[in-house]
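Following up on my earlier thread - several people asked me to post the actual chain instead of describing it. Fair enough. Here it is, all 310 residues.
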Amino acid sequence: MIPLCVCFYATGIMLLDTLDAVLDVGGVYDSSQDRYDHHQKGFDEVFGHGFNSKLSSAGLIYKHYGREIIAKELQLDETHEDVNHVYLAVYKNFVEAIDAIDNGINQYDTDQPPKYVNNTYLSSRVGRLNLNWMDPDQSAEKENAAFQQAMIVAGSEFLESVHFHAKSWLPARSIVIDCLKSRGDIDPSGEIMLLNKFCPWKLHLFELEEELKIDPSVKYVIYQDDRSKSWRIQAVAVSPEKFESRKPLPIPWRGLQDDELSRESASHAHFACRCSSSCLADSVEWKELIRYLLLPLFAKVDLRTFLKNI
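Reply from S.P.:
Thanks for posting it. Predicted structure:
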């Protein structure tokens, strides 16, 4: 690990040769000499593990030192499987975007213009710390001060990402794995999953379905809201980036609640259906959500057999 040191912005080759570590300048990638540039001709290093984006200097540093940082945060050995899960997740959800933007890699394979402008990502926020070209003071001292501020912004957000994945993402992943494996106990179709404890589940579901080769895919997730304690049905989206659901709730239900929805769904319980992907119930248990709302949507399920068990 590179020890704590004084960091500053510099480009002169004579000066760079005197430094302990050089990042993003110098035209050299040599981890044995702590040189981490990616601008030189012939550089094509990638992170691996299924990721193919060309690395920036940030990705190079993470590739060499990320696992060590995460192991210390988790207080586990670097070879522990939880360290590996978080190591890959932080790259996917934080570092890879920095690599891609720095190397000019488009996020989408399309010539169509974006439907909206997004200047809220980390690279954009750091970019706004550059000296204003209208500022008469363009001194090296002021440029270095801006560089120090950028380091604080980027460093704090990196650590926030590590802490989130270690303290929140990883425990949630364990819950979703258990619920996926036991979904057949809730409904024989395997397309309804009950969360036995509320957690952020959406991203985990998509990744774990692929990892565990889940087929058929989960169409609905039932969980108890941790604040209102109401039970909710959530239709699963077709992908993490899409709003469309794999199996939307019926159009006639949408916008209805209580007696109106009970009549439309031919149930005797009180529910509210807010949109195509979500229903909630204030005074019923999850079994009633399955009985009255979900099972009629699965024609292949033998209702008489299943209702004896709930």
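Residues 13-106+120-129+138-170 form one domain. That should answer part of your original question.
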